[in-house]
Design brief:
heterodimer; A: 538 residues; alpha+beta; Dipeptide-binding Protein, domain 3; six-stranded mixed β-sheet; 18 strands; B: mainly alpha; MetI-like fold; 2 domains; 13 helices
Chain lengths: 538, 323
């Protein structure tokens, strides 16, 4: 008993330290020096932020670059707190009915090779991202569909002209992949140069990289924020196996892993290291879904899809699954802590979100019987990754059995899983997910419309009403009205048509060595990775 | 002998062509492609046209026969191409990992040889005694325990023991440094996987040494040597062991070849940036260029080591002559 009590105390102390970190960190004076070793669970194909989409690129390379604006590193848990990085003052308000944004650019910002940054570098950067020439990759140009032109009337002024006013623009600008490149580099070396080369204005300079092993960086002395960075450098160590990543922190070969660990690994570290480990936790801008394949006759009847969502006990599942998997929060289509997200009172009105699971399952059985699908048999396609896919997939099957469904699970490795989702469509229902960086609900919820590139439900062209609702949402500049439209869309996608089923939102857990200070957890593993504010209390 | 070696080298060519065809076809039978893994694995919303552009840039839209001839032509002009994942030359990717894999293979072979040969001899000489049973138990345990599990236990054991003795947990380094650059760091990292792998490897070799020795010890020439009054040590070392080593050398050589590319799980457990890990990454990412060339490298290593083993037979047994 005392052993468990001690462990519980240590865990509470660890989490407590994290919760209190904000207050205590402010009281502490950052120490300069030291090298931060951190672990990255994968290796990036290249260093080009505009091209790649993996955290394995962001974690080792984000500190090399600056963004025009970024998520506030002192308040990263806020989904709406953005601050200037390369611009001056606060993030500007739009003019021209919400269609023009004018940024004043910082003077004297240096690139690592000594070039001085001007607004023209930002024009070249955003033209590459938004209007890439033929044959040039830009993974997120769709985020900027609203942009008509990017201009620099002078060296210190950057102007974005939009086609329509929208709330999706500012969060899109804060996307951590929008690395600022030099116009000269793009012109002289070409658009592929940044895949293998680094020249940014960030707090750290590239030192060396060994494929499959590490990326190493040193402090940039001419960084544009006085007194920062605090660290002398960092080393991003690549390690694919979770057991090694956990033990590396335990054995102090690394101080932190920014992506996150499951609850069991957190508990193990707290138990082994006590006060030497600090745990930070946050809701995560990733949601685990299941997608019924509307191309299969068995899933074409909305009553069947509604029955599936009614069978899922989200509130109960949250309590149990959060002890073993990286999921926790019950939510709708928008990130739970965002102003555009549904409150609990709004959620419980949707099918499958009620608190009386017994009644919901009775209703589900009735709907299946009405649709002539009592005792329905189908297969759940799943991704061959434990956290959280296989755990939640297995739980889902248990939920559906409660309404008499007979479900088998087919688990496939990532590449063939996506092949089934995108090309062969050979599934009845599949586990699916929507994982984004900056919280930008207006863009993020495009996942739920049939015509979206990352929608795998095969209902493109079958629900024009939902598409129209989404288009209305994108072009609405007023936040209160956006919220109303979001509720309509949510009800249509999750309840009336039950095109998609949300299970739970992910939950991010970052245990790290307690001497790592100044880093605050964000609701995405892509965010707050500039490391300029991080220091070591050694 | 020279003529024999030349013939064997020539015979490698059809073997390599067969392996090339097989690996090319097998890789393309697997569903999915590298561009989907690259852009969709993160779950971020991605412009679909980027996936198509990626396929175009990597040549995946070319007819398969063209891709095959490109692959073969690379060997003809000694250009193995670039990794489809990192864009770096395949030769560079392999070169930076080759030293580590070679060192682990050599160290594990040394560990295995140092353990296996003395234990196999003792076990055979003291057949059906307590010593024999202990050695056989040790060997069977080595075969039964997966080396990755042993690896995990070693790391965990080190963490627990050092924390209780020193107050701070210690684990082996997780990044490679060459033995020429930092020998202490190098050995602190590699000794543990060498022991974990070498133990399993030694278990197989111990059993082989024991059974080969038992067979040889019953031969007439051994009985004759003893009848002449030869010292037992000389009988064992000079007459029995040398003749018993033929199958042991085969086992050691084949295991060595396996270690050069097959230490997949152990490399992951100890976070070793070796060829086994590179192979896993290549397969997972569907990096055809990398996987094809790595498989071909392993085939070449196997063929080459088989040739060396055959040549070693002649040295071990003077009755063997090649023509």
């Amino acid at each position: 008993m005392s052993k468990y009590a001690g462990f519980a105390f240590a865990l509470a102390a660890g989490v407590g330290l994290a919760v209190g970190a904000g207050g205590s960190a402010k009281a502490e004076t950052p120490k300069k020096g030291g090298i931060l070793n951190f672990i990255v669970a994968a290796e990036s194909p290249s260093y080009d932020g505009h091209k790649e989409s993996t955290f394995a690129m962001v974690h080792p390379t984000r500190p090399f670059y600056s963004l025009l604006i970024r998520v506030n590193p002192d308040n990263p848990s806020s989904p709406t707190d953005f601050q200037c990085d390369l611009c001056v003052g606060s993030v500007p308000k739009p003019t021209d009915g919400g269609k023009t944004y004018t940024f004043k650019i910082k003077k004297g910002v240096k690139f690592h090779d000594g070039q001085t940054l001007t607004a023209n570098d930002l024009v070249a950067t955003y033209n590459k991202i938004i209007f890439p020439p033929d044959g040039v990759s830009s993974a997120r140009k769709a985020f900027f569909k609203m942009v008509d032109a990017v201009e620099a009337p002078d060296d210190e002024t950057l102007v974005f002209k939009l086609k329509f006013a929208t709330g999706a623009f500012i969060p899109a600008l804060a996307t951590p992949f929008n690395y600022t490149y030099s116009a000269k580099d793009l012109k002289e070396h070409g658009y592929d140069w940044h895949e293998k080369n680094v020249n940014g204005t960030g707090a750290f300079k590239f030192k060396e990289a060994v494929a499959g092993s590490h990326v190493e960086a040193v402090k940039f002395d001419d960084f544009h924020v006085d007194g920062k960075p605090y660290l002398d450098g960092y080393k991003a160590l690549i390690s694919r196996k979770m057991a090694i990543r956990v033990q590396a922190i335990r054995g102090d070969r690394a101080s932190i892993e920014f992506r996150g660990f499951p609850p069991k690994q957190r508990d193990d570290l707290v138990k082994a290291l006590g006060k030497d480990i600090t745990v930070q936790e946050s809701d995560w801008n990733c949601v685990l879904l299941y997608t019924p394949n509307h191309g299969r006759p068995i899933m074409q009847d909305p009553r069947v899809r509604q029955a599936l969502t009614l069978a899922v006990d989200r509130w109960g599942g949250s309590q149990h699954l959060s002890r073993i998997a990286i999921v926790k929060t019950v939510g709708g289509i928008a990130f739970p802590n965002h102003p555009l997200a549904a409150t609990k009172a709004e959620l419980v009105r949707l099918k499958g979100y009620g608190t009386d699971i017994k009644a919901a399952r009775e209703e589900a059985k009735k709907l299946l019987a009405e649709a002539g699908k009592a005792g329905i048999k189908f297969e759940l396609l799943n991704r061959g990754t434990d956290q959280p896919y296989k755990i939640v997939g297995t739980w889902l099957i248990g939920q559906w059995r409660q309404i008499g469904a007979q479900v088998t699970q087919r688990v496939e490795p990532t590449k063939s899983f996506y092949n089934s989702l995108r090309k062969t469509h050979d599934f009845d229902v599949s586990v699916d997910f929507n994982c984004q960086s900056v919280i930008n609900p207006i863009v993020d919820v495009s996942k739920y419309i049939g015509s979206a590139g990352n929608n795998y439900g095969n209902y493109a062209g079958q629900d024009q009403e939902l598409e129209d609702i989404y288009n209305q949402l994108v072009q609405e500049g007023d936040e209160a009205k956006q919220r109303e439209i979001m509720r309509v869309m949510e009800k249509r996608a999750l309840s009336d048509q039950a095109h998609e089923g949300i299970t739970l939102w992910w939950y991010k857990i970052n245990p790290h060595r307690s001497y790592v200070k100044g880093w605050k957890i964000a609701p995405s593993h892509y965010l707050n990775q500039s490391l300029d504010q991080v220091w070591l209390d050694k | 002998m020279g003529k024999y070696i030349f013939k064997r080298v020539l015979l490698m060519i059809p073997t390599l062509i067969g392996a090339a065809i097989l690996v090319f076809l097998l890789l393309r039978m697997a569903p999915g492609d590298i561009c989907a893994v690259r852009y969709l694995g993160s779950g971020l919303a991605i412009d679909e046209s980027q996936i198509e552009l990626c396929r175009e840039q990597l040549g995946l839209n070319k007819p398969q026969i063209v891709q095959f001839f490109d692959f073969i032509w690379g060997y003809v002009v000694f250009d193995l191409g670039d990794s489809m994942w990192t864009g770096q030359p395949v030769t560079h990717e392999i070169a930076i990992r080759f030293e580590l894999s070679l060192q682990i293979a050599i160290m594990a072979t040394l560990v295995a040889t140092i353990i296996a040969i003395p234990l196999g001899i003792i076990s055979a000489v003291r057949q059906n005694t307590i010593t024999d049973y202990v050695v056989r138990g040790f060997a069977i345990a080595g075969i039964a325990i997966p080396s990755f599990w042993l690896g995990l236990m070693i790391i965990l054991g080190l963490l627990i023991v050092t924390q209780s003795w020193l107050g701070e947990p210690w684990m082996p380094p997780i990044e490679f440094k060459s033995i020429w650059e930092d020998p202490i760091h190098n050995m602190a990292q590699l000794i543990w996987p060498a022991v974990a792998t070498g133990y399993r490897y030694s278990a197989v070799a111990t059993r082989m040494t024991r059974s080969a020795m038992l067979e040889v010890l019953r031969e007439d020439y051994v009985r004759t040597a003893r009848a002449k009054g030869m010292v037992e040590k000389i009988v064992i070392n000079r007459h029995a062991l040398k003749n018993a080593l033929l199958p042991v050398v085969t086992i050691l050589a084949l295991e060595f070849a396996f270690l050069m590319g097959g230490l997949v799980v152990t490399e992951q457990v100890f976070n070793l940036n070796g060829l086994g890990n590179l192979m896993v990454d290549g397969v997972e990412r569907q990096d055809f260029a990398m996987t094809q060339n790595l498989v071909m490298l392993v085939v070449i290593i196997y063929v080459f080591i088989n040739l060396l083993t055959d040549l070693a037979y002649a040295w071990l047994d003077p009755r063997i002559r090649y023509s």
